[in-house]
Amino acid sequence: MSRRTSRPRQPAAPRITDASPCPCGLGAAYGECCGRFHSGSAAAATCEALMRSRYTAFVVQDAAYLLRTWHPETRPPGVDFDPAMRWTGLEILDTTEGSAFHTTGTVTFRAHYTDDGRPDSLHEQSRFARHEGAWVYATAVFVD
Fold it and tell me: How far apart are CA 33 and CA 97, in angstroms?
C-alpha cells in the first residue's frame, strides 16, 4: 500500500562531482575548492572560507562536515535537510576579522534557495571562532 503525502516529491539534488563548479560561487571546481574541506584534506584558513564551505555542505547535504565545523557549545545533535529545499546561490555581503591572525570573525551573507519551487533567500550574519586551532561556526543573527 502506498502512502500519500500532501507535499509532492522533489527531484534529487544535482550530483556534485570534484570537477563540477563549486556551489560556493568562487569559480573553482568543487574538488579544488570546498570539496577538499569536506574530505578533510584541508582546513578553511578564514571564516569566509568556512562559511562558503558550510553553504556548499548544505548544497551537497554533508551533515558530517556541518557538525564537525560547528562549535561544540552550540552544535545540535544532528542536521535535517528539507527535501523540498534547493540552495541556488551565495552572496557574501561583508566580513569582519576572521583571518589567520584573528580568533573570531563574522560573515554577513545572503543564501538563495527554492522551497518547493518558490524562490527565497536567507540573510544572516554568522559568527565564527577558533576552536582547537580551527575555524568553527558559533552562532548567527538573522538580518531579515
Answer: 21
